[in-house]
Each structure stands twice: as C-alpha cells, then as structure tokens.
Design a protein that fits this description.
homodimer, 243 residues, Arc Repressor Mutant, subunit A, Tetracycline Repressor, domain 2, 2 domains, flat, DNA-binding
DNA sequence: ACCTGAACACCGTTCAAGT
DNA sequence: ACCTGAACACCGTTCAAGT
C-alpha cells in the first residue's frame, strides 16, 4: 500500500535557476543594467516576481549569477602549456572580449572584486593571475603587489572600455564606439592649446587608436615593469610628497 | 519717479547651487550613493524637490557636480617644479586619498571617465598625467598608450580600494578596512591548497599589506615599464593567442 | 525668478493565498 | 514544494500653482 516508490513526485517546478539567469543575461545584453527589472524579467519568463525570489534571490543576486556565469566561462579556458605571461594576456583578453560582448559586465566585475572576495569570480581571477606571476620567477615578496597591479589595471581598462552609452548631449553620439571616439577627438582638438596642450595635441590618436591593442600593450608595459623590478631591489619608492 | 536704480531686486533666491552640492557631498559621505535621494536632500535643505531640479538638475547631475568639486580640488594642487613622475604620483595619491575620504567617488570617477570625455574631470586628469608623460622623454607615439595605461591602473585601484561595505554575509565584516582584509585573509587561508594554491599561500600578505603603499608601488612599476620601453622599440607584442 | 509639493509612473521586495 | 500577484514602501521627475 504505502509502497512509496518515490515517483518523480509530480514536480511542479517549471522554472530553473539556469533558465532565469540566461534570461537575465539576455535582458542585460539588450538594454544594460537599467533594463534588468524584476518585473520585466518575470514577464519574459511568464511568471510572477515572487518566483524569481524563490529560485534565485533578490536583484543583486541576479546580477551576481549572470556575472559568475560569464566570467567562469572565461576562466575555464585551457591555458595549459602557455607561458605565464601569455596566460595573463589570455585571461585579460578573454575578460576584455567578454566585456565587449556584455558591456554591463565591467561594472559587475568591479562590484564582485571589491565586495565579494569570497566569490568564485574574485578568487578565480586572483588565483589565475597570481599563479602565473609566481611562475614568472619574481621574488616571493613581490607576488602580491604584482598581482594586484595587474588586476587593478585590467579592472580599470575594462571599465573604461565598456561601451556604455554616453550621456546624451552634444553631438549625436550613438552607442557606436568609433563614432564616440571620433567625436571625442573633435572635441579635444577644439580645445584651447594653452589650457589643454596635451589633449589638443593627442586628439588624433584618440580617434585612431584601437582599444584592444592599447589594452594588450598596457599589459605588456606592466609585465615589463614587474620583470625589471626583480633586478633593482628596494629603491626608495615610498609615499611621494606626503607633506 | 521711475528712476529704477536697480535695487538688489528683492531676490527670492534662498538656495544656491553651491550649498546644494555641499549638502549632496555630506549625504554621500554619510551613507554612500544610495543615501542620496532627492527627497532626503530636499528635506535637509528644507525645501521642495522641485527646487533642486531648478538649481542643479536631476540626480545624475547632483552626482556629477559633487564629483567635479572634489576632483577639481585635487587637480588644483600646485605640482610646479616637481619631476614628471612625481607629478603623476602626487595626482594619483591625491585621488587615492580623496576616495579614501569619499568612498562614493570611485564609482563616480569611473562614470565620468567613461561617459563624459568632455567633462572637466576627464580632461583634467588626462591633461595632467599626459603632459607629465610627455615631459618624461618618451617617444611621441607612445604618449597616448602610456597615459591610458596609467589612468586605467589608477581607476582600477581606486575602485578596488574604495571602502564600500561588503555584502553583509559570512563573518561580521564591518566597514572597517582592517577587519575586512583580515577576514579575507582567513577565508583564503582556509581554501583548499590544491584548488587555490596561490591564494592559500598569499593569505597572510592580504591581511598585512597597506593599500596606499601597494598603490604607490603599482604606479612605480608602471612608470618603470614605460621608461624601459623607450629603449626597446617595436618588439612583437601583438594580439596574444588570437586563434 | 524662484520655490512648493501633490501627482505620476515607475521601482524592489514581501507574503498570504493558492496548487 | 512551488508559484501567483496584490500590497507596501519606496524611488526620480514633472508641473500647475503660488510668491
């Protein structure tokens, strides 16, 4: 009678966490962070807002989950056999391209790195870069600084290159990166050369430069600085003009 | 009779833009970005919300104005006579300390740098660092890259060091940076050494390091990388493993 | 000119109620 | 267990109305 065979138990579940997160990503990709509202998400999933809280959690958790999914995909890429500096470049470029595809990711990456040191994203990025730094033959007391420097640069560069649409104002600056840069270039060239000599002179470079290439060169510059430092030990590089 | 002497014109103005922005900063300092609501601001100024829109603009403009005020104060500091690299360090540290005092500033700085290239903040920072880079004797084609690398690093480091309170979870992590770092250290040390060898080994450094010193050393590392590159011209540092 | 504050169109989140 | 969706406590912004 009560032979309870543990039937598939007539599951009422019709919503999966995975499916929700996929929809979150779609919403973010289409309209940026502001487009992610619990209501919009619920509607696209043909459900009530409560179901989302039940399956995933509050809005912040939706963002975390989407971020983790994207970043873990980047972190999972092989990277075996390549040199330490190449491994760093590969991860950095992987993240760069991920932000290119998902502009909302830059801000979320910063959030995770600063507020969730226990999270898979923070730990994965630090571990990958850190272990590569260690393999570079740098003296151990410098490992942490070198890793932090690389992570900070990557974070800043991703933030700046994330193609968030600029504040609508001035000339019709579309969400197109090329147009954007060329309008910046024009604005800078028009500056008073006495007040902004550098920007005025560099205006052309802003229009013509390639973000991705500049990013790679930045990584190279930092790696060079790290390697060179291994030879010249403790020079006096204290706290600048501290007053 | 109608000798209209242009009296002080019985001004009804009781609210100044300056006073509003000062109150915005106070609100942000006390409770972070989420504490800045138009309603809270209006109440502290004993006025209606409409008055704020009349004097300054929408909420985003309140944030911009507060950011500009703080950053322009940092940019205005002398910097005459000091060496180019010292000028860069001074500005970077000035921004670092400003973020320390105003944690909300980090995010706003990123916003301005990425979305308001015409703004005083973006232009001031790029001009100051760029002209210092130019004075360092670097070949002209490298000016833009070098400047961008420095700005990106500064941006990333400020973001990461901004003492935003972490997501409340896990051990009682207060808004105190020291406690925060030491709890991170404990968590990292507890990690499986097989899965996270680097983090496990570096755990102590995380607890003991000084953010500000690490920041300065990061700047030095990058400056070194930039200077060294001037000797070794166009090596092949293209696009990593582009597939 | 300058300010008021109610009204509008949204939010995220909760939770009794249903199945 | 899983989901619904009304209700609650907020938002930013606008704008007729006042002085």
């Amino acid at each position: 009678m009560t032979s309870s065979v543990r039937l598939p138990s007539r599951t009422n579940q019709v919503l999966s966490r995975h499916g929700i997160v996929a929809e979150v990503t779609a919403l973010l990709d289409a309209g940026g962070e502001e487009a992610l509202t619990v209501r919009a998400l619920a509607e696209r999933l043909s459900t009530g807002s409560g179901a989302i809280y039940y399956r995933v959690g509050p809005r912040s958790e939706l963002l975390n989950a989407a971020t983790e999914t994207v970043v873990e995909d980047v972190l999972a890429r092989p990277g075996r056999g390549v040199s330490p500096s190449q491994r760093i470049r590969d991860l950095a470029l992987g993240l760069f391209d991920a932000v290119d595809e998902h502009p909302w990711l830059a801000t979320q990456l910063v959030n995770q790195l600063t507020r969730r040191p226990w999270g898979a994203v923070t730990m994965g990025i630090f571990e990958t870069i850190g272990s590569a730094v260690r393999s570079m033959g740098i003296p151990r007391p410098r490992w942490f600084d070198a890793t932090a420097t690389l992570v900070h640069f990557i974070l800043g560069a991703l933030s700046q290159n994330a193609r968030t649409e600029p504040e609508s104002s001035d000339p019709g600056a579309g969400p197109d990166r090329g147009e954007f840069l060329s309008s910046v270039s024009i604005a800078w060239r028009a500056l008073d050369p006495d007040q902004f000599p550098f920007l005025h002179e560099i205006a052309d470079d802003a229009a013509e430069h390639d973000d991705r290439q500049q990013f790679v060169r930045g990584i190279s510059t930092i790696l060079r600085g790290i390697e060179v430092a291994s030879d010249a030990p403790t020079e006096q590089e204290q706290g600048a003009s501290d007053a």
